[in-house]
Specification:
296 residues, alpha/beta, 6-stranded mixed beta sheet, 3-stranded antiparallel beta sheet, 38% helix
């Protein structure tokens, strides 16, 4: 085992120990499909008056969600808009030195020089660890969380494409899955830049090292997890060459051999690192995202 694989394995083990008896989908495997959830979750954007943090009204009639976005930097209507979605269990609006926030580490340092308007999304249930760990026990809440993020992306795409025209969606890990889901079901952005994600989400919970955090209930029914979480078919039916993925060759969570199949016929940027070590390589991630911004 190399160092990249080692860091991923140890991270999963530490997370499993820290969460103690909390495991993904331990309470219920029942859920509507992504298609149904995306159709039922309603987003009401607040009036956007420049830079700042905006809470968003979001519900499907049964579950209440609490997504939000931070309009970090406005350059002008002549610039594209880059919308970034964080990874699993981050605190995307916390900018302290010790805060878990990939937006802060990858894009915040260059917000003034980045040739784009810049927005950071906060997925539902990510205001606190206690809320998040309570929700992930149900597959329906996890899928609803992702669907709410996707519908927030779509609402922002529609809002900002009226003026700027070109909206780029990017995200890492959990955020990368949301970006790919948006492409699979809406495909209304100018470009997609998923980092450490594919379209076979079941493999994260059933096949990868991350399965240490998966409940026995889910492991006993891999066919349900595959049916509910995978969106390979919808993703592959998009013919536009508008996705620019990045994967880690030694990633033990988003396994390269499995997830690279999601991008058949599409060039994939591959870094010789694992999941954790790729997340730490902020210069490479920033370079990849910036390289996907449109140039006039």
């Amino acid at each position: 085992m190399g160092k990249h694989e080692f860091f991923d394995q140890m991270t999963a083990s530490a997370a499993a120990w820290a969460l103690k008896k909390t495991r993904f989908f331990q309470d219920s495997l029942e859920s509507n499909s992504f298609s149904d959830l995306l159709g039922s979750i309603e987003i009401t954007l607040p009036k956007i008056n420049g830079e700042g943090i905006y809470e968003v009204d979001c519900t499907d009639g049964e579950e209440e969600y609490d997504p939000a976005f931070h309009f970090v930097s406005y350059k002008g209507n002549d610039y594209p808009t880059l919308i970034y979605h964080h990874g699993n269990n981050e605190r995307p609006f916390h900018y302290g030195l010790a805060s878990k926030n990939t937006f802060k580490s990858i894009l915040m340092p260059s917000k003034g020089s980045l040739p784009a308007n810049l927005i950071s999304i906060r997925a539902p249930f990510h205001q606190s660890l206690s809320v998040y760990t309570a929700k992930i026990k149900r597959l329906s809440a996890f899928m609803g969380m992702l669907s709410a993020s996707v519908n927030l992306m779509e609402a922002l795409c529609q809002n900002f494409s009226k003026n700027q025209g070109k909206v780029i969606l990017s995200g890492i890990s959990l955020g990368g899955w949301a970006v790919n889901l948006h492409r699979a079901y809406y495909n209304s952005a100018y470009a997609y830049v998923p980092l450490l994600a594919g379209a076979a989400l079941d493999d994260v919970f059933i096949g990868s090292a991350y399965q240490q955090l998966t409940s026995q209930r889910a492991k006993d029914h891999p066919e349900i997890i595959q049916e509910k979480l995978n969106f390979d078919l919808n993703f592959s039916q998009r013919e536009e060459k508008n996705v620019f993925p990045l994967l880690g060759r030694y990633d033990q969570f988003v396994r390269y051999d499995r997830q690279s199949k999601s991008y058949e016929g599409i060039p994939v940027k591959v870094v010789d690192k694992g999941h954790v070590t790729t997340v730490m390589d902020t210069k490479e991630l920033k370079k990849h995202i910036e390289g996907c911004l449109p140039r006039e």
